[in-house]
Amino acid sequence: MDETLIRGLETALSASPDNLALRMALVRALTAANSINTAAGYLDSLTGEQLADEEQLLAAEVMQKLGKDQHALDFLVSNNCHVLLERARILAKMGDMNEAKSAYAAATGLNSTLEDPQLAAQLNARSIETHNGSRLRVISNDNTTATELNRILQPESEAITFSDIGGLEVVKKQINKKIILPYQKPSLFSKFRKKIGGGILLYGPPGCGKTMLARATAGECNAAFFNVVISDILDMYIGESESKLHAVFEQARRSSPAVIFFDEVEALAAKREHTREATSSKLVSQFLAELDGFAQDNHGVLVLAATNVPWALDPAFRRPGRFDRIQFVPPPDAEARTEILKSQLFGRPGGETIDVAKIAKLTSGFSGADLANLVESAVDEAIDESIESGSEQSLCNTHLLQALKQVKPTTVEWLTTARNYARYANEAGQYNEVLGFLKKHGK
Known about the structure:
The chain is 53% helix and 8% strand. It is an alpha/beta fold. The protein folds into four domains: 2-127, Serine Threonine Protein Phosphatase 5, Tetratricopeptide repeat (Alpha Horseshoe), CATH 1.25.40; 162-328, Rossmann fold; 334-408, Helicase, Ruva Protein, domain 3 (Orthogonal Bundle), CATH 1.10.8.60; 412-441, no CATH class. Strand 5 (258-263), helix 15 (278-292) and strand 6 (301-307) form a beta-alpha-beta unit. The chain starts with a helix and ends with a helix. The relative contact order is 0.07.
């Protein structure tokens, strides 16, 4: 069948030698029949500019099979994404990595579904010189510098403000009134002999923005921000945890004005009667001493802490002068969810076309983290569709609605637990805000 087709095409081409489409059809048939030398003969008089994108790729394939990589490159002149990708592969094979990188970047910029991890690793590999002067290419992600290692060990955090956080207006107003104003108007507060600093405890369901609020508070105060990770403090050796905690506070005092933030603070401040280890009790005592001990001067030092289980904290931390200001951070309302969705969709293909108001109405009870997960799931849908179709598919409402069938709110369990504490263990009124939220939203 192939032989009959080839003979027919050759006869037709001899009668019409200037018919380019006929010539390329013959080249394609010869290539399929593995008659590469004969196919190359019909390409001799042609240039890349004469050929369509698919024909350029065919001509390059023929030349590569003959080992003529430069001739293959000469045919690949189009700015089509597939042509650029093939050009990148040939340039990499020839060792011209700079040109190959440019071609690969152009190809994937036009169509991200063409990303090739193996080719990308090859292009990002470095060369090393051996003892005999020859050069080897090392295919690995080995370009980590000392600066990058420092960033990994201690991530740099850009200052953010309340304007970067969607919703939570009531919480922001409370924090501004209780915390930020003393930093912004220190002379007024000093006249009234009002100390700047103190402690505030943020509590609420996981994923609702407690950590973001802490960072934004530091940004609004224009203060140094110390994000204390639990692993930075806890140590297996007796006395080391207390020493590290003291060092953190000392550093903050020297950097005043400063904000120290303890996330998951219950790991350092759990009720002492519930611990079986004397070392844990000593750490709690050290924490209390750092907050308001006789020899400490925390003026200008604000201690922020966040927890999902405020009922697990030692009651001593609630004493005035310690974490005497407690702020409930609820799940975002409809307005806040709209802002969060806008933020999560910003810069994504098709993100501006999403009906965020509609999605916000359908996501009651979702935390900020839940909404981020929802968008990520919708993006997965769009990426799967792009890979299946071979071309980029932008996000649309359908992708979000499909994701909603899979992603569910994670705040319900926390609110159920908090409701029990708010109803039956609320002697001091510390969970009144939770009761108000539950009453308003019918949880």
